[in-house]
Design goal:
heterodimer, A: mainly alpha, 6 domains, two-stranded antiparallel sheet, two-stranded parallel sheet, 49% helix, disordered C terminus, B: mainly alpha, 3 domains, 16 helices
């Protein structure tokens, strides 16, 4: 038997331990429940309710103030009066009411009887039909008999029901004669106070109460809580969790409660309304909230409901600090798909909008894409679906244009010669500016120059004819269209082509003259068009452009190149493929010039110069840069941040790379040819930011095809034309496709500006346009600006014609090329109309120099070949509709003709007559008409 | 000061230094158990460990490692295992003294006194259950379960680590091929543990702690457990970083750290370095030195030991049990042996036949 009180075990101590541990466990459990129920989003929802309550109260006050107090008073007085009428007739009303009650009782009974009978009848009909269908005639007959027997009864019941209904209605009307007025007035008052009632309803909805608190309490909040997680289940989109795909569920609206509510535009975050509800989120917008969700565009973790775990991403380090302070934010370690910071959110547009030159309403993304095209990024970095042209000049004949010495000085730092050049700096950058690298840079540059001079074919150049007049040249440059692409002498509307500065320190007169006369002679692939300059004009422009020198640049001397460095570099290239000893043998077999040329060819291959320039020997070379097709979704661990202290995000990496391409070499020890080699473009912050947005938009799309914007064939053709328009810089001069002709900004008289091409597809015949684009002829001889000869290929010309058609919504093709049916009568009447309306006054074949450009119009002789006949009708009807702001007067205001004598004054017929006349018009045959017009001045049309 | 401390620890830290230090400490522990488990020494040792953590926590990298939710239980493991090892050894040492003096052991004295299961035992168990529940609740409140990204098959985390209890095996992979470290050794561990009662039929120390009466059994067990398992788990958890590179406790885990890999095979040592000739083409001849070493280790060594050091043991156990024991023991010893060979001579494999994926 064990002892009563064992010495090793004490029950008292165990009691204490039990009490203590039980208490601690209880505390733990309570803490657990409280912690579990206290959620960040609940706090936001409470704040939202408080805010909305406050707003509702303001609304209440406003609506109360809006009520017309006088009218209300009047109505209330009326109501009191009506009520007193009711009181006066209380006895009668009571009596009528009692009668009505009795009638209602009977009514209900009769109604039930009638409805029951109908039920039986319908049921029997069903059985009858079924049996009849199964040929069970015996049974069918029974039901048929029942149906027929009941018919009479049913008709009786219906009649009775109708009678009693009428009786009831009569009684009700009787009562209403006494009470109707009261009801009517109170209805009016209710209507007047409707807004107030609504506001009051809102207040009670957003006001906290004990009942709500209880329903929101931990453990009870499963019943009917007012604080609840809100979510959008996006039906057609899925989130990829690698081993499984799950339907997209976005809970962002748990806190962003006002995101699709109008009126919260100025509310504090997270309650603010999404900008542009007509474009995003709205039920009529193309991006409906329930169809697209939130994270599809913004990224982040849609299922998370706290600020940090939703993977919010700040757009700057200041914002990061502010968030950390305000929301206890920190960068999420374990969630790859972070939210895009707001300044890059347009990158997501490209998930669905691909294949277009521009994405509508995504200015930053478009700017980024434009910059990538302009700076030729795709020359080195392949981007699937983005095939662009080489942006730099061809170097296949460079020996006829430049001397090697110039190339050497230029490559040292292109910006020193011309600040606006797009040629990036390649050498002497941060990671290659130690003395040893500088020596190698000099050798490399000389090598490139040597290679280019040796490996380019000369072209025949013509010397300028006579002495050029620089003054004259300046006028020409500023007036015939050079400014449509180039910036010259401080006149800047375009920077499509290189700025024309310092040319005197760069090229020879023969080259420039030959180039201006025919750019394609020097480089068949150049985008530079011919302005069909006369010999004298070309000489003048040559003289003007060559007068500009860059003295600082001219005084620069090419640095000394150490032969041993050249040899050393050659060896280091050679040892890449052969043994050191063999390399030395090969090196010794080369002359110093050959060594230099060899180094040059290797440097070109290494730096990928051929990405932008055509270089002999590198026709089939592959681009040297990282492919960027999926850069926006490339895993973060594959970005080498080196020793650069920036946030570990894709956008920070890309931005830094663009701002200082060699930064990630900082602190690294690398052989010369293993250093980073992306050249320095000196992008501004805005440019780098826009390009970053674009690069982030290069993603592997996870959006199903039916959710994406898929281009139809018309849209594809339009986009092809749009790209060509961008490539050739049509908008440098012309207003078209929603962009104003850039050169217009520096032309004072709009009459001198290149024409506006909106509606061109509707206006001109396709055949004419095709031939015009191939070989332009003057349409407006007074215009100094010349439409250049671009030398478009058939394919390109066709593409442009199609583009203009699509822009003008012209669907029929080629039919307009047929001559329209003209009637002799119309042609005959057209003559006098043409004369009397004085068309020739502005539409002169040989423009009157006295007339201002704004009053001059194209020679109408061209009309029959150039214009679409239907367009002429539209145009004459009201020119302002077709081209707002045109100087062409409208002769037929409101469809009325100013000339009642011709064709009975019928405007439509007259317009037709003018059109038909134009179709046969030949100015040389009708000098009389012009003369007549000149005489008849006082008849000037309105 | 702090910097000097972390620098010193980092530069001292290497697998061989840590393993050798631990080995030395262990040797000290089993040679002078009475001294090592005495109050002042044990508490000094415990305090030293606590102080190391306290000071080390000043270092951001170390703190991050220690408070990482995954690692918290392993920090706990150090203290819990340390405490129980001390507790058992302490009792064993006291009992040894008592036995020497001819007195009954502690357990014997305690078991004189008997109490009812209820309320005494059940009640205490209930209280302990409550305490455990409370500990788990507080733990789950204070340290959130570490949830990471959805697993991405195209992107494995670096370092890729096994669950903590398998980190010992993963650490063995540094020195042995998977078929050995991942298959043969674990099998031997399980079989060996199962075999203990059949090999060691010593009836003493049942029901009480004693060191002297079972010295070699305890040394073998504690050595295997502490040095070849717990230590490897700790190293795998705290000192193995990206690319399974070794990092000091205060060294930033840099994924770009590069260490030279210059290990060579025994055949290369033998033919190329010592004999100055090329490797033979016949792979059996080529691997002959390795086979010979292995044959010596498992064939000759047991016999030599039987004749010399372990004569008594052999007599006591008889041939079959001796054979099983010696093979298990040698296999267990093979781990530190190979580790030291690697550290001392950069030995990669004793036998390397990559043609059939057979490397030892």
């Amino acid at each position: 038997m064990p002892p009563k009180k064992p010495s090793l075990y004490s029950l008292d101590k165990t009691h204490v331990a039990f009490a203590a541990s039980g208490f601690i466990l209880l505390v733990g459990l309570v803490w657990m429940v409280l912690q579990d129920s206290s959620r960040e989003w609940k706090g936001w929802q409470r704040k939202y309710m408080a805010m909305m309550q406050e707003r509702a109260q303001t609304e209440l006050k406003e609506t109360q103030a809006k009520i017309n107090a006088e009218e209300l008073k009047k109505l209330q007085a009326e109501l009191a009066e009506a009520k007193s009428t009711v009181v006066q007739h209380r006895a009668e009303i009571q009596k009528a009411q009692n009668e009505l009650d009795q009638i209602t009782n009977r009514f209900n009974k009769v109604k039930t009887e009638y409805q029951n009978l109908k039920q039986f009848q319908d049921s029997d009909r069903y059985f009858y039909e079924e049996y009849a269908d199964h040929h069970e005639d015996e049974k069918a007959r029974v039901y048929d008999k029942r149906l027929k027997d009941r018919e009479g009864e049913l008709a009786q019941a219906k009649l009775k029901f109708e009678q009693i209904t009428a009786e009831k209605e009569a009684k009700e009307a009787e009562i209403k004669t006494w009470t109707g007025r009261e009801q009517e007035v109170s209805k009016k008052i209710t209507a007047m106070e409707m807004d107030v009632t609504l506001a009051e309803g809102k207040i009670s909805k957003f006001t906290p109460s004990l009942a709500k608190e209880i329903l929101n309490a931990p453990m009870l909040d499963f019943i009917h809580p007012s604080l609840q997680i809100q979510q959008i289940v996006v039906e057609k989109l899925q989130d990829d969790y690698y081993f499984a795909k799950a339907q997209k569920v976005d809970r962002c609206i748990t806190c962003h409660l006002g995101i699709d509510q109008k009126g919260l535009e100025n509310a504090p975050q997270p309650f603010r309304t999404h900008p542009n509800l007509d474009l995003f989120l709205g039920s009529n917008s193309p991006h409906k909230l329930e169809e697209i969700g939130c994270t599809t565009c913004h990224g982040g973790s849609g299922q998370s409901v706290s600020f940090t775990t939703a993977a919010h991403t700040p757009h700057s380090s200041e914002q990061a600090k502010e968030w950390a302070k305000k929301y206890d934010w920190k960068a999420l370690e374990f969630w790859a798909d972070k939210m895009l910071p707001l300044n890059h959110v347009e990158a997501s547009c490209a998930k669905c909008h691909t294949g277009t030159v521009d994405v509508p309403q995504a200015p930053k993304l478009n700017e980024g894409r434009r910059l990538v095209t302009e700076y030729g990024c795709t020359g080195c970095h392949k981007v699937e679906g983005m095939d662009r042209w080489k942006v730099g000049p061809s170097l296949a004949h460079v020996q006829s244009k430049l001397d090697g010495d110039w190339i050497v000085r230029w490559l040292q730092n292109p910006k020193e010669f011309r600040h606006s050049t797009r040629m990036p700096r390649i050498f002497n950058l941060s990671n290659a500016s130690d003395p040893e690298s500088l020596d190698k840079n000099n050798a490399a540059i000389s090598g490139v120059a040597a290679y280019l001079m040796k490996n380019s074919d000369p072209v025949t150049l013509t010397a300028p004819v006579g002495k050029g007049h620089a003054e004259n040249g300046k006028t020409l440059v500023e007036t015939i269209g050079c400014l449509g692409c180039h910036t010259v002498g401080g006149q800047s509307a375009n920077h499509h082509g290189p700025e024309l500065s310092g040319l005197g320190s760069k090229v020879k007169p023969e080259w420039l003259y030959s180039w201006l006369k025919d750019p394609k002679h020097y480089n068949p692939n150049t985008r530079m068009p011919s302005l069909r300059l006369s010999d004298q004009e070309a000489s003048d422009i040559t003289a003007y452009l060559l007068a500009d020198h860059n003295e600082k640049f001219e005084s620069d001397r090419p640095p000394y190149v150490k032969p041993e460095v050249v040899a050393d570099m050659a060896v280091s290239f050679l040892t890449g493929t052969m043994r050191h000893e063999d390399a030395l043998k090969k090196l010794n077999a080369m002359s110093p010039e050959e060594q230099l040329e060899f180094v040059g060819s290797k440097v070109i291959a290494h730096q990928g110069c051929f990405g932008c320039h055509e270089i002999k020997g590198f026709e089939d070379a592959k681009p040297i840069g990282t492919e960027l097709t999926y850069e926006g979704t490339k895993d973060l661990s594959r970005f080498d941040f080196g020793f650069v202290e920036i946030p570990r995000t894709r956008q920070a990496w890309i931005f830094q790379k663009l701002k200082d391409p060699r930064a990630y070499d900082r602190g690294k020890v690398k052989p010369y040819f293993e250093k980073l080699k992306m050249p320095h473009f000196e992008f501004s912050d805005e440019q780098a930011d826009a390009i970053t947005t674009f690069v982030l938009s290069l993603q592997k799309s996870s959006i199903p095809l039916e959710m994406q914007k898929v281009l139809d064939s018309r849209e594809k053709e339009t986009e092809a034309g749009r790209l060509l328009v961008e490539k050739m810089n049509c908008q440098g001069c012309h207003t078209v496709d929603g962009v104003e002709g850039r050169v217009r900004s520096i032309i004072e008289d709009a009459g001198n500006a290149p024409p506006i091409l909106d509606g061109e597809g509707k206006k001109v015949r396709e055949r004419w346009l095709y031939h015009f684009l191939k070989g332009p002829t003057p349409i407006r001889p007074w215009l100094k600006y010349r439409m250049p000869t671009f030398g478009f290929s058939d394919q390109e010309t066709h593409s442009l014609v199609t583009y203009f058609n699509h822009l003008s919504n012209v669907h029929e093709r080629y039919v307009e090329d047929e001559t329209p049916v003209t009637t002799p009568e119309h042609v005959k009447q057209g003559g006098p109309l043409f004369t009397q309306l004085q068309c020739i006054k502005c539409h002169q074949a040989h423009p009157d120099a006295a007339l201002s450009s704004s009053f001059l119009a194209p020679n109408l002789e061209m009309a029959k070949d150039r214009l679409r006949p239907d367009w002429i009708l539209e145009w004459l009807k009201d020119p302002q509709v077709v081209m707002p702001g045109t100087m062409m007067p409208g002769f037929f205001p409101d469809g009325a003709s100013p000339l009642p004598d011709i064709l009975n004054g019928d405007a439509t017929e007259q317009i037709r007559a003018i059109r038909d006349y134009l179709m046969v018009f030949n100015p040389d045959e009708k000098p009389a008409a012009a003369a007549a017009g000149a005489k008849d001045r006082k008849n000037t049309a309105t | 000061m702090m910097h000097a401390f972390t620098e010193a620890i980092n530069s001292f830290s290497s697998p061989v230094a840590i393993f050798s230090t631990a080995f030395a400490l262990f040797a000290l522990f089993v040679t002078f158990p009475k001294f090592m488990t005495s109050g002042p020494v044990a508490s000094a040792f415990g305090l030293l460990v606590v102080a190391f953590f306290a000071v080390g926590m000043q270092n951001p990298h170390f703190r991050e490692m220690v408070v990482k939710p995954d690692n918290v239980p392993i920090i706990g493991l150090i203290f819990i295992f340390g405490f129980f090892t001390w507790y058992a050894m302490r009792k064993a040492v006291i009992n040894d003294d008592l036995i020497e003096q001819g007195k009954p052991t502690i357990e014997k004295t305690e078991s004189e006194e008997k109490v009812m299961v209820f309320p005494y035992l059940i009640y205490i168990e209930f209280v302990v259950a409550l305490v455990y529940a409370a500990v788990l609740v507080f733990w789950s409140i204070l340290i959130k379960a570490p949830l990471e990204d959805p697993a991405n098959p195209a992107l494995s985390p670096n370092p890729s680590k096994a669950p903590w209890y398998f980190l010992g095996l993963q650490e063995m992979l540094v020195y042995f091929d998977p078929w050995l470290a991942g298959v043969l050794f674990p099998t031997f561990i399980i079989l060996g543990l199962c075999a203990i009662p059949y090999i060691d039929n010593n009836p003493k120390t049942s029901g009480y702690y004693s060191f002297k009466q079972r010295r070699w059994g305890i040394i073998a067990f504690l050595g295997g457990f502490w040095l070849l398992w717990i230590l490897l788990v700790l190293m795998g958890t705290f000192l193995r970083g990206p690319n399974w590179n070794f990092f000091g406790p205060f060294e930033e885990w840099n994924a770009h750290k590069l260490v030279p890999l210059v290990n060579v095979n025994l055949s290369e040592f033998f033919y190329v370095k010592w004999l100055g000739m090329g490797l033979p083409h016949n792979l059996f001849i080529r691997e002959l030195p390795g086979f010979a070493a292995l044959a010596f280790y498992y064939g000759v060594l047991p016999v030599l030991l039987q004749k010399t050091l372990l004569k008594n043991l052999h007599e006591r156990l008889g041939a079959p049990r001796y054979a099983i024991l010696i093979i298990l023991a040698l296999t267990m010893l093979a781990l530190p042996v190979k580790m030291y060979l690697r550290w001392a001579f950069n030995l990669k494999y004793l036998i390397a036949i990559p043609e059939v994926f057979f490397n030892i």
